[in-house]
Amino acid sequence: MVHISSSHKKQLYKVEITSPSGNTLIADEPLENGGQNLGFSPHELLAAALAACTSATVKMYANRKEWALDEIKTQISLEFDKETQKTSIIRNIELAGDLDEVQRAKLLYIANVCPVHKILSNPIAIDTKLI
């Protein structure tokens, strides 16, 4: 289970996010939404989670197989359609290295089973409480 904490103080829309391991990052809204653009927007953070998980999962698999995967570039586009209440995510993955077509196909399969992909592809329940 992952536990993340956030804290919003005086700066408009600036949120400090911390993990139990001591990592910290800043989230903020872009200027056009009234923020100061001091960090990733919440939508960017969601897309970043998928990009990071995809790249790490593919790299771990390639390392275990000792395949010559030199670089992974992942691009995520995320769009929420308010009218249909549907989220669309487009993920493009570029693999650099001496890989044959069978290896590339297997790495695509592995990308589609990364943990964040699984979370986003399945029903999500959010239980919110005031404490």
Which terms would index this structure?
131 residues; alpha+beta; 3 helices
What's the arrangement of secondary structure elements?
Blueprint lengths: L4 E4 L6 E4 L5 E4 L14 H24 L2 E14 L4 E13 L2 H11 L3 H7 L10
Antiparallel strand pairs: 1-2, 2-3, 4-5
Helix pairs in contact: 1-2
> Sheet with the most strands?
3 strands, antiparallel
Mean pLDDT: 96
Biggest sheet: strand arrangement = 1-2-3
Could you give the distance between the termini? 20 Å
Number of helical segments with 4 or more residues: 3
Q: Radius of gyration in whole Å, from Cα?
A: 18 Å
Q: Any low-confidence stretches, pLDDT <50, length ≥5?
A: none
Structural class: alpha+beta
- Helix proportion range: 25-40%
Question: Can you put this structure into words, describing what you see?
Answer:
The structure is a single chain. Helix content is 32%, strand content 30%. With 131 residues, the chain is α+β, with helices and mostly antiparallel strands. A three-stranded antiparallel sheet has the order 1-2-3, with no helix packed on it. Strands 4-5 form a two-stranded antiparallel ribbon. Strand 2 and strand 3 (24-27) form a beta hairpin.
Short description:
With 131 residues, this protein is of the alpha+beta class. It has helices at residues 42-65, 101-111, 115-121; strands at residues 5-8, 15-18, 24-27, 68-81, 86-98. The chain is elongated.
